[in-house]
Write a structure and sequence with these properties.
By secondary structure, the chain is an all-alpha fold. The chain has helices spanning 6-22, 27-41, 47-59, 64-107, 113-137, 141-156, 162-178, 195-218, 222-235, 244-252, 260-270, 280-312, 316-319, 323-349, 356-370, 376-390. The chain crosses the membrane at residues 12-33, 82-103, 115-134, 146-177, 197-218, 291-316, 328-348, 360-390.
């Protein structure tokens, strides 16, 4: 492991916390903030290595921007540096969402106008994410067809295994269709983690994915059930934070752990805070088990991301030149678009848009976000105020 001094670790924590307090706008915007801070200003990583790291994190399931931050932290300061980079970038939004969940519980806001406004904010934000991802991830007929399959399958076959099955079948389709696809670029990141430790991290990742459902089945512990749900959701998300929505919704709403209204209110609030959207787990965990549950859920949903980035980067130089692997990933990314469209309809649209006024307000928020380029926190504030005003119309 790479040895670093205390000064370097403090610097990693300080810089990542600054980013965690100021990085609004979702994963693509986060990568822009990282590039400005880590590549241009501080020169912790060069342009080529940064591009390679981003490519790897787009390849892996999990929150891409968080994994890039962890990777840079590890490159700069070893495993401890990666942990500090994660904590700095994540904790500001975790704390904010835990406080929001406690406020909701204390004042019974679930049926209030501002909460309805936050749900309409979720409509606008996810619609923007769908458009952006569709343009990039489904440019040809084959990938559009894979996305359509994922959309139909996810809507019509709603079981606990739907997401995994759709992703695996789409990966197979991508492998078969694009196995000769070749756009490889040179990659040679020197990662300060041994291959032995990397294999341990990957073994732990897959081991927990297998063992946790078994433990959940033989145990009545609410904490094990929570850990399994959040860990599995964090392990199976391709395409960014917005895609975690359908996974978490399937885990907790049909089972009665919480209502659609409470779920979507927290998702709307998550748009108002900087940092990764995966911190939505902090809100859900707090609703279930107070502030301790919020921290526990955050740890569970981000643990796969940490294990994967540490476990795969030492092997990335070999993997990324394999066109068959890249083809499978192209199929998975196309499926992500279909899954997100399905989630846009249910639960987001069906639980948020009830009248023509709701639709008009959603159109205004969408235009503010997409065409006027206003920051997400402005959209959230307008959504809260508008939701309150809608009560009087």
């Amino acid at each position: 492991m790479k040895k670093v001094n205390i000064k370097a670790l403090i610097e990693i924590l300080f810089v990542s916390t600054k980013l965690g307090l100021t990085s609004f706008g979702g994963p693509i915007a986060h990568l822009g903030y990282f590039h400005e801070e880590y590549v241009r200003r501080r020169k912790w990583i060069d342009e080529k290595s940064y591009a390679d790291l981003v490519a790897l994190c787009q390849f892996l399931p999990g929150p891409a921007s968080s994994q890039v931050g962890i990777g840079i932290g590890v490159l700069r300061g070893g495993i401890i540096g990666g942990v500090l980079a994660f904590l700095g970038f994540t904790l500001p939004s975790v704390i904010a969402l835990i406080l929001f969940a406690l406020l909701m519980q204390g004042t019974h806001l679930s049926g209030a106008g501002p909460i309805h406004g936050l749900k309409i904010v979720a409509v606008a934000v996810v619609a923007q994410a769908i458009l952006g991802m569709a343009q990039k991830l489904v440019p040809d007929l084959q990938r559009k067809s894979i996305a359509l399959f994922a959309l139909v399958g996810t809507l019509l076959w709603q079981t606990a295994y739907t997401q995994v099955s759709v992703i695996l079948l789409s990966a197979l389709a991508g492998f078969l269709i694009y196995k000769q696809h070749n756009e490889s670029e040179e990659s040679n990141i020197q990662f300060p983690v041994s291959r032995g430790f990397a294999i341990f991290c990957l073994s732990l990742f897959f081991g927990l994915l297998i063992i946790l459902p078994i433990l959940r089945g033989i145990s009545s512990s609410h904490w094990i059930a929570m850990f399994d749900s959040f860990y599995r959701s964090g392990s199976l998300v391709f395409g960014g934070g917005h895609v975690v929505l359908p996974l978490l919704e399937r885990e907790f709403v049909p089972t009665g752990w919480l209502s659609k209204e409470t779920f979507l209110a927290g998702y709307g609030a998550a748009q108002a805070v900087p940092g990764p959207l995966f911190t939505f787990a902090a809100y859900l965990g707090t609703v279930f088990n107070g502030w301790l549950g919020g921290l526990f859920a955050t740890f569970a949903i981000f643990l796969p991301a940490f294990l994967l980035i540490v476990g795969t980067l030492p092997f990335w130089n070999t993997l990324r030149h394999n066109p068959k692997i890249k083809g499978a990933l192209m199929g998975v990314n196309a499926a992500v678009v279909g899954i997100l469209i399905a989630a846009f309809y249910n639960p987001i649209w069906t639980s948020s848009i009830f009248t023509s006024i709701d639709f008009a307000f959603a159109a205004v928020l969408f235009s503010m976000l997409v065409y006027w380029k206003l920051p997400p926190w402005v959209i959230v504030i307008v959504g809260i105020i508008g939701g309150w005003l809608l009560k009087f119309l």
